Hints:
This protein has 9 helices and 5 strands. By secondary structure, it is an alpha/beta fold. α9 (182-197) links the parallel β4 (170-173) and β5. α1 (2-12) packs across α3, α3 packs across α4 (55-72) and α4 runs parallel beside α5. The longest helix is centred in the middle third of the chain and has 21 residues, at 92-112. It is globular, with a radius of gyration of 17 Å.
Amino acid sequence: xxxxxxxxxxxxxxxxxxxxxxxxxxxxxxxxxxxxxxxxxxxxxxxxxxxxxxxxxxxxxxxxxxxxxxxxxxxxxxxxxxxxxxxxxxxxxxxxxxxxxxxxxxxxxxxxxxxxxxxxxxxxxxxxxxxxxxxxxxxxxxxxxxxxxxxxxxxxxxxxxxxxxxxxxxxxxxxxxxxxxxxxxxxxxxxxxxxxxxxxxxxxxx
Length: 206
């Protein structure tokens, strides 16, 4: 089963993303073997694994692969493709390791190979984000937006920002086990509001 899963994941990865991955990791983790292809096939999925079980990279790998593919074809639009929502406000370090750093390394690898690739933008928006930074996000819309449940709900009340979210294709809800109280109910309602505002139904990844 694992050999079949490895072949499936290898088969869907862009050569550039595949080369980057194996420059960092010896092999796919079990969560990646079972999760990446399902996300690629745009199936809603819940990824469960112990701490350090590569859950976040499992969620992001298929999305990174998709966005890198668009960037290589010069087809990236000025819109949000993916939302990453976490109840933890201290996101910066984790996101740098799991998202920004891989994207920077993939773009550097592309340039080394002489491949043209669009810049893939990632932005962090929380209650601490300044007015100036928010304005920049409206002008240079992030392709991946990292946020908290409360800020996610507030963003959906901004008509200008909602326009950039109508094409969201993936929503990652991290630490979903921590959303068992009123925050979880509120987030569920916010996700339904996003679906109502969207032109397509986003893939949900827990």
